[in-house]
Amino acid sequence: xxxxxxxxxPRCAALVGPYLSGKTSLLESLxxxxxxxxxxxxxxxxxxxxDSATEAxxxxxxxxxxxxxxxxxxxxxxxxxxxxSVELIxxxxxxxxxxxxxxxxxxxxxxxxxxxxxxxxxxxxxxxPHLLFINKIDLLTSGHEARISEVLEAFQAVSARPLVxxxxxxxxxxxxxxxxxxxxxxxxxxxxxxxxxxxxxxxTVRDREQGARQELLEALSxxxxxxLEQLLEDVAPEKEEVYRLLTRELASDQIVPVLVxxxxxxxxxxxxLKLLRHEGPEVRSTAARLGVDPExxxxxxxxxxxxxxxxxxxxxxxxxxxxxxxxxxxxxERVSGLYRMMGADQxxxxxxxxxxxxxxxxxxxxxxxxxxxDRSAPKRSPLWPxxxxxxxxxxxxxxxxxxxxxxxGAIQKLTEEDPTLLLEQSTETGELVLWGQGDIHLQIAIDRxxxxxxxxxKFHPPQVPYKETIRKAVSHHARFKRQTGGHGQFAxxxxxxxxxxxxxGFVFTESVVGGxxxxxxxxxxxxxxxxSLPRGPLGFPLVDLAVNLSSGxxxxxxxxxxxxKTVARIAMTEALPQCEPVLLEPILTVTIAVPNEFTSRxxxxxxxxxxxxxxxxxxxxxxxxxxxxxTIPQAEIHDLIVELRSLTVGVGTFTYRFDRLAEVTxxxxxxxxxxxxxxxxxxxx
Length: 685
Ligand SMILES: Nc1nc2c(ncn2[C@@H]2O[C@H](COP(=O)(O)OP(=O)(O)OP(=O)(O)O)[C@@H](O)[C@H]2O)c(=O)[nH]1
Ligand SMILES: [Mg+2]
Prior knowledge:
29% of the residues lie in helices and 32% in strands. The protein has 17 helices and 34 strands. Helix 1 (23-33) crosses helix 9, helix 6 (203-221) packs across helix 7 and helix 13 (522-531) packs across helix 14 (561-575). The longest helix has 19 residues, at 203-221. The relative contact order is 0.09.
C-alpha cells in the first residue's frame, strides 16, 4: 500500500518468461486495462503493440523488446515486452537490467520449470525484483494440466527465492472461475474481457485460502521478527503491515509473489496492475541497484539501440536521474529527438523525467548498456551482462551479385542493433559467416536484410577449414628449362620435403654448398615453395611440413629469380603427391552446460558427432547444472546447439575453442576432398 498519497515517479516493468507464455498478450491486456489502448489486438491477428515488427508478425513470436507506456491511476508505467526465445536472451537481459521489476509470465505447466531456472538465476544474481504471473489459467480446465500447487512446486524447485502465492483460484467443477486474494481476503469472479466482480469467498475455497494465507504469512515472517511473534501467539497481523513487508521483500528480491490469470481473457490483470502500483519498486532503488552515479542535470542508460527507417539511430533509454530535454547534450552528443515509444509509434516529448523510458534520437556514439550524462562521455555499467558467445553460424552470399557490397554494410547495421549477431569474413575459407544464437536468430536477421535493406541472401552451413599435411619424407629433383627466341630460362633444384609434428606450421631451410644455387636466388626458391602452400594436392592449405633446399644448378645467362621461383613450384607440385598427403580436420574443445537430469544423455550426442567426453562436473555457481568437457570435430558442430536444445527443453548450451588438427581418412576425408574439388572447379580456380 502506498505510504502516502504522493504519486510515484514513472516506473518500468519488464515482461519476461519462456517462449509463447503470453507476454505480448499480457502487455496488450495491461494496456487495455489501464485505458492506454481502446481496442485489444491479438498475437494471432498480428496487431499487438508488442509485436509490431514485420518479422514478429510473420512468426507470431516476439523478435525484440517491445515498448509501451500507460498511465494507470495517475502514475506512468513503461512496459518492456521481452522476447521469450532463448536465442534472443541478450535482448531480454538488457531490458531486465533497467526495469524496476520483472513480471515473469509462465504457463501453468510444471515441465516449463527447466526454462525458468536460468531466468530466475539471472534475476537473483542481479537482485532484480520479480513476480510470477501464471498465465493461461483458463487452460487449467482442460484436464491434463496440473493443479496450481503442483505447478508451484515444480517452479519452486528452480527458484532460490520463495515463491509466495498471493491468490488461490476458485474452481467451479473443472473450470477456474475466479480467485481469492490472500492478503485482502477478497474473492473475485472472472468475467471474460471485463472487470471481475467482487463476490463472497465460496465455502469450497475457504480451507485452501486459509492454508495458503498461512503459508504466505510464514514466508514473510522469515524476514520480520514481529510478524513471527504474532504468528506464534496466534495474533492476526494488520493488513497494512503485511503489505508493507510484501513491498519491502519484493524490492530486495527476497520473495517472489505469485499471481494467476489469463491475458487472453483479461482475467487477473487489474489485480496485477494494482500490485505493480502498490508494491512496484521505485526508479531510485533501481538506479542504486545498478550503481548509477546521479551526475549533473540528467543521467540515462541505453538498453537497446534501434535504427529506425526515418528517425535514424534511436537509443532506447531509462532516465535514472534528472530531466532529459530534446536538444540537450548527453554523453557528449546532442539529443536530436525525444520520444515515448508505443509499439512502432514514436510520440514526441519535449522532456522526460527520472523513471521514464524514452527513445533518444541520433546519439551515434552511445552503445547498448552505456550510461550517459550531461557531464561525461558514455560509460559502460560494470554490471551489464556479458554477451553470450555465438553458437551457430551460416555462410551467406547475396542472391544478387550487385548487392555484395551493400551486404556487409547492412549487416553492420543489424549488429549495431543486436550485438549478439557477429559477422566474420573467414580468412581460411573466404566465406562471409553470420554468427549468432541459433537458427531462428539468424533467420530473423536474414529477414531483416530483406525487409529493411532489400537484400536477399542465400545461406548454407559454413565450410570447415580443413588443412592437409604429409606423412612421408621425399627428396625430389626438379628442373625448369625453356628456350624461347633470345635468352631462355633455366633453374634446377634438389629439395627434401618432410613432415613435421602437429602445430609446427611450415619451415624452410637450405644447405646449399659451393654455390650450386647462387645466394641471390635462394629467397626466390623459398617464395616459390611458399606459393604452393595454400593449395596442396588434396586442395587444402598445407601445414606441418619442412622443405630443405640441398643443391641445384644454374646458368650464367638464363637463370633468374623468376626461373628459380618457378622451379620451386614445380618441385612442390611433383613431390607432394609422393609424400602421402593426408587431410587434417580441426578438433574443438567443447564445454556443454545442461541441467544435470540431462547429463547422462550427452554421451550419445557427443559420440554421434565423433566426439569424446573427457569428464564432467557440477557447473560452478549454477545449482543443478553440469558441465561436460569433450572434444568434437568442427565438421560435426554446426547444428549441435539445435540437438542440445531439443534434448534440454531449450536451455542447454555450449562454448568451444580450437584445440588441434587431427588426421581424417576414409569416407569422410574422401567426401571433404571431393566437395573441395567441386568448389574450386566451380570458382574456376
Ligand atoms: N488460452 C490462453 N491462451 C493465451 C493466453 N495468453 C496468451 N495466449 C496465447 O498464447 C500464445 C502466445 O502468446 P504471446 O502473447 O505471443 O506469447 P509471448 O510470451 O509474447 O511469446 P514470445 O514473445 O514469442 O515468447 C498466443 O497464441 C496467445 O493467443 C491465455 O491467457 N489463455
Ligand atoms: Mg511476445
